[in-house]
Amino acid sequence: AVVSTQSGHYGRGGRTQVAMIAARLCSRVAVARPLVQPLASIQPVFAVRSFQTTPKVMDESLEQACKFIGAGCATVGVAGSGAGIGTVFGSLVEGYARNPALKNQLFSYCVLGFALSEALGLFCLMIAFLILFAL
């Protein structure tokens, strides 16, 4: 429709056709339609699902499975306790081999280390039993 705007020539319809196109582009219907029409034609990305409830049997089995997983995670600390006790007594043997004169002092430190490592292992086991039987 518009051939050249720099030289003043507007093609077939002249200035009236340009005025009509501008009026049509700026009218409320032409401005509002691109905003309203695409929103109405957009399809939802995800399908809308109704609220579903699980049977009570499935809820109880899921809860039981979560308890077993939690108790298993809590008992990992017992393995750390065993490794700690082994390290404590290994250090006792090594220290006694280096200096037998410190036997009594090394043994008292060894008993203290054993008690702390064992206490942490028992705490982990207690948490596992609490998860399984108290919750």
Number of DSSP-assigned strands? 0
Terminal Cα span: 79 Å
Strand-residue proportion: under 5%
> Over the alpha carbons, how many angstroms does the gyration radius reach?
41 Å
What is the helix content? Answer: over 70%
Structural class: mainly alpha
Bulk shape = elongated
Number of helices: 5
Mean pLDDT: 78
Low-confidence stretches: none
Please describe what this structure looks like.
The protein is built from 5 helices and no strands. It is mostly helical and 135 residues long. The longest helix has 31 residues, at 103-133. It is elongated, with a radius of gyration of 41 Å. The relative contact order is 0.08. The mean pLDDT is 78.
Name the features.
135 residues, mainly alpha, 5 helices
SSE blueprint and pairings:
Layout: H1 14-26, H2 28-41, H3 56-74, H4 76-98, H5 103-133
Task: Give me a quick take on this structure.
The chain has 135 residues and is mainly α. It contains 5 helices and no strands. It is elongated, with a radius of gyration of 41 Å.
